[in-house]
């Protein structure tokens, strides 16, 4: 059987995954505007008409990329944290480690989610914001569990979650661009920074300006 015939007989799901994988790389390294459907097709080893047939326009393909990569990141964090039963700090640590590990092991995916999606306007920015909202909600749940008995308001819990996720996003980008910084080191840095303050809140010890 000729190689071309074998390639054409790949299941559609496999072909689509190859195309989306190629699109992730192109969008991350060239930017949405500069990336071309020709380049994506060439990298995926398929024809440009096949990319359009399977995944639609460039805008539809970029939306598909954002949704797939966001889903993968959210799944990795959820799997890392696991179910309830562990101490809140251990669950938060596991979630942070899973987040930084995903960003480190999938740098192109992280660039698409953290930079490209947010700078291209709608509908892409909205897709990225929905992912962020899910992560913030997840973190707020963990902080809320830890703070259940110490009288921290729900607004404070939400604010802390927003701050922690923002710090994690910034630190992940820095860690990926700084040689020698591991995902575990980045996660530990943020955990030490965050939990020192959260630990005081759990003991009802608050800092206030003079």
Describe the structure.
By secondary structure, this protein is mainly alpha-helical. 78% of the residues lie in helices and 0% in strands. It has ten helices and no strands. It has helices spanning 3-8, 12-30, 37-44, 48-55, 58-81, 88-105, 107-119, 124-146, 154-177, 183-202. It is elongated and about 60 Å long.
Strand and helix map with partners:
Elements: H1 3-8, H2 12-30, H3 37-44, H4 48-55, H5 58-81, H6 88-105, H7 107-119, H8 124-146, H9 154-177, H10 183-202
Helix pairs in contact: 2-3, 2-5, 2-7, 3-4, 5-6, 5-7, 5-8, 6-8, 6-9, 6-10, 7-8, 8-9, 9-10
> What is the beta-strand fraction?
under 5%
SS-based structural class?
A: mainly alpha
Q: What is the number of E strands?
A: 0
Apparent shape: elongated
Order of helices and strands: HHHHHHHHHH
**Uncertain regions: pLDDT < 50 for 5+ in a row?**
1-7
Task: Give me some keywords for this one.
10 helices; disordered N terminus; elongated; mainly alpha; 210 residues
Give a short overview:
The protein is mostly helical and 210 residues long. Helices cover 78% and strands 0% of the residues.
């Amino acid at each position: 059987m000729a190689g071309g015939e074998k390639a054409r007989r790949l299941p559609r799901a496999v072909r689509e995954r190859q195309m989306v994988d190629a699109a992730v790389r192109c969008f991350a390294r060239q930017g949405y505007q500069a990336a071309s459907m020709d380049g994506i097709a060439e990298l995926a080893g398929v024809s440009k008409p096949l990319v359009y047939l399977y995944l639609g326009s460039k805008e539809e393909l970029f939306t598909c990329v954002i949704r797939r990569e966001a889903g993968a990141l959210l799944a990795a964090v959820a799997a890392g944290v696991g179910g309830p039963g562990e101490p809140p700090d251990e669950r938060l640590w596991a979630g942070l480690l899973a987040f930084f590990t995903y960003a480190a092991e999938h740098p192109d995916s992280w660039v698409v989610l953290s930079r490209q999606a947010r700078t291209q306007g709608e509908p892409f920015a909205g897709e990225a914001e929905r992912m962020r909202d899910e992560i913030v909600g997840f973190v707020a749940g963990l902080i809320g569990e830890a703070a259940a008995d110490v009288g921290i308001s729900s607004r404070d819990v939400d604010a802390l979650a927003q701050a922690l996720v923002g710090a994690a996003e910034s630190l992940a980008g820095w860690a990926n661009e700084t040689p020698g910084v591991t995902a575990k080191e980045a996660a530990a840095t943020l955990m030490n920074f965050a939990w020192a303050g959260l630990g005081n809140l759990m003991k009802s010890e608050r800092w206030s300006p003079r």
